Automatic annotation (TrEMBL):
Organism field: Bacillus aquiflavi
Residues passing through the membrane, by range: none
UniProt name for this protein: Thiol-disulfide oxidoreductase DCC family protein
Gene Ontology MF terms: protein-disulfide reductase activity
């Protein structure tokens, strides 16, 4: 079984987050698709997500999770101490998303944009869909 993470392909912070996840996902549970790609756009339409998406999105077991809920649920499958971040799921979502939104709104300013893609090894490349 796998889950799919949709991410902003031009955001440096998002790209580094994907690399962080790959390093801590020894069972290759997660696959990835850029929000700018066809697969992500079709899935967003299928899930009736409207407007500009300013979030990491996790699609797992037929459910779509956004913002802090997606980020924290992703941690649950990762190796190492990062999985303990799932504890923050007990914090009410509006509070978690308030802080998530601050980072999301400033991510280009703080971390920049990328005009090129990561060139992954063959075994990592197969985890990207589009």
């Amino acid at each position: 079984m796998t889950a799919l993470i949709l991410y902003d392909g031009v955001c440096n912070f998002c790209n580094r987050s994907v690399q962080f996840i790959i390093k801590r996902d020894p069972n290759a549970y997660y696959q990835f698709a850029s929000l700018q790609g066809e697969t992500a756009q079709k899935l967003l339409s299928d899930f009736r997500v409207k407007g500009d998406v300013d979030s990491f999105i996790l699609i797992e077991d037929g459910q779509l999770y956004v913002k802090s809920t997606a980020a924290l649920r992703i941690c649950k499958q990762l190796a190492g101490t990062v999985r303990f971040l799932t504890f923050f799921l007990v914090v009410p979502r509006p509070i978690r998303d308030f802080f998530y939104d601050i980072i999301a709104k400033n991510r280009y300013k703080w971390f920049g944009e990328s005009d090129h893609c990561l060139i992954p090894s063959d075994d990592i490349k197969k985890r990207f869909v589009d």
